[in-house]
Automatic annotation (TrEMBL), chains A, B:
UniProt superkingdom: Bacteria
Cofactors demanded by this protein: pyridoxal 5'-phosphate
Protein name, entry field: Pyridoxal-phosphate dependent enzyme
Species classification: Bacteria, Pseudomonadati, Pseudomonadota, Alphaproteobacteria, Rhodobacterales
Organism: Sedimentitalea todarodis
Translocase keyword on record: no
Record-annotated Tryptophan synthase beta chain-like PALP domain positions: 16-304
Xref: InterPro entries: BHydaspDhtse, TrpB-like_PALP, TrpB-like_PALP_sf
UniProt cross-references to Pfam families, sorted A to Z: PALP
Keyword list, A-Z: Pyridoxal phosphate
Length: 316, 316
């Protein structure tokens, strides 16, 4: 298992800069007042394909040598990694095959296809996903870019925390949602090296709290097919992300479905950005644990904004 | 009638800088491809009270001498000017009285009250609004800050185009929605002085096309109580805004209700920002008149983002 280094993250940033956006920070006097904290929202939903995952995907795609690149890339993903890898592959002009649960939101499937990615559907469980993928990968010979358990991907995701720190002049706490742990691992990689005093808090849905239980137990616990509105956070930790989570995360906080939906609507209303349910888990946990964040400078990573606008959760 | 000058706009910018945000520019490769133009969206929906009108309102409020300020400010407004004036007044700690149509969206009323503004409701017509306002103003003695027909307000709105030009390195065309014409007049004030080669196009709902008909006729035509989903654009031109519109606007383009709603949803989906129907009229007119914009660098002012999230127009 190769553990990506701080230098890998710096190299990734140089490699991907031409292909990603340096996304802006949003602030809201209203949300600061509501939480008692000073909140800095890093808008990764403003990446062209609508999610931070374009960072890790671009680092993998543009790091391939020409021979490897011929067969393209392949992956399995609950959504945003698939569209972001398709997008990065389209920028380089190479094929991208993705295995995706048939239950993934239509908006996410559309995005993958718009970027030229080829989708093979599987059942919405980790086991079905991995089985289907093995078949696709052997057929195409594409380079496997795991959505999170890949040092290239983690180094890429770490560039987000680097920008966030530059844009805010330092933070007491960074909160990011946790599914497989790619963004959280990248954040750990960057902050443990350049700002070890900054706390890293992972935010997870109660209904998919495998990372929380893993963190408390001291070993990986994986659930098959959890169900939550935060559909980007369904997947379990793997060895590489567990390394970062177990060594560098300060705490994992959870929120209920209702709390996530309330936070989502609050973000749309006061930040005036379209953010996914998955991206709303950090704000939900901050609202639930105000004492912990009061008076602190808190960075929050808005991980994505690919939402089916015909199926808003507060209107269902 | 005092016509604000370029220097008034520069002075306004210095005066209001501590109180407003220098809002970011959003771009979308997808929307560029769809329109054939290079689009730069200036996100005034990211101002703290959610609309560009905080610029003109702050310029008026912070330009008052201490004696004038004691009685506060007063205005009538279909929504965003009211909340922005209340916000600016709250920053200075002075009273704000607003007359607002009873049919204004609940979200806008809530925002006014949150900032300490006192609302008096009127019927949704220009005549009722002006009558109710005269009563309120004589009772309170507040300084009347008209939503658009005020040189201080127009000078303030002009600061938006100034930032837009700085942030984009110049543009061929700037498109802004037109209601009473405050933003368009401010844009004319700034661009006619510093970038006279840049075209200024005003975008208006077909169902409230009084500015379009005025522009073609060569004199102000005012409708009483037009109806459109773009509820920020219901009011007619007045002498001061007519001065700017008639002298400096290149053209006025219109869009249907359906085209406005489609553009609104498209903006939410691909820019991942919450923008009002009123703010979506420019994109609707660009999509409808692609030949006119193809190959051009086009600035679009996203004027506001105060939306009732329980009443989205594409779900009604």
């Amino acid at each position: 298992m190769y553990i990506p280094t701080f230098q890998d993250m710096l190299d990734a940033h140089e490699r991907i800069k031409p292909h990603i956006r340096r996304t802006p920070i949003r602030t809201s006097a209203y949300l600061n007042e509501l939480t008692g904290a000073q909140l800095f929202f890093k808008c990764e939903n403003f990446q062209e394909p609508g999610a931070f995952k374009v960072r890790g995907a671009s680092n993998a795609v543009f790091g391939l040598d020409d021979d490897q690149a011929k067969n393209g890339v392949a992956t399995h993903s609950s959504g945003n990694h698939a569209s972001c890898l398709s997008y990065a592959a389209s920028l380089r002009g190479i094929p991208c095959n993705v295995v995706m649960p048939r239950t993934a939101p239509q908006a996410k499937k559309d995005t993958v296809r718009r970027y030229g990615g080829k989708i093979t559907e599987c059942e919405p469980s980790t086991s079905s996903r991995e089985e289907t993928f093995a078949k696709i990968q052997s057929e195409t010979g594409g380079d496997f870019v795991h959505p999170y358990n890949d040092p290239r991907v983690i180094a890429g995701q770490g560039t987000c925390a680097r920008e966030l720190m530059e844009q805010t002049d330092g933070l007491d706490i960074v909160v990011a949602p946790i599914g497989g742990g790619g963004m959280v691992s990248g954040t750990c990689l960057t902050l443990s090296n350049q700002a070890p005093e900054t706390q890293i808090i992972a935010a997870e849905p109660e209904q998919a709290d495998d990372a929380y239980r893993s963190f408390k137990a001291g070993h990986i616990i994986a659930d098959d097919a959890p169900k939550t509105i935060a559909d980007g956070l369904l997947v379990p930790l793997k060895d590489l992300t567990w390394h970062f989570v177990s060594n560098h995360v300060t705490d994992i906080l959870t929120a209920s479905e209702e709390e996530i939906i309330d936070a989502m609507k609050l973000g749309w209303k006061h930040l005036r950005i379209v953010m996914e349910a998955s991206s709303s888990v950090p704000l939900a946990t901050i609202l639930k644990n105000k004492d912990r964040f009061a008076g602190k400078r808190v960075g929050i990573i808005i991980t994505g904004g690919n939402v089916d606008l015909d199926l808003l959760p507060w209107l269902q």
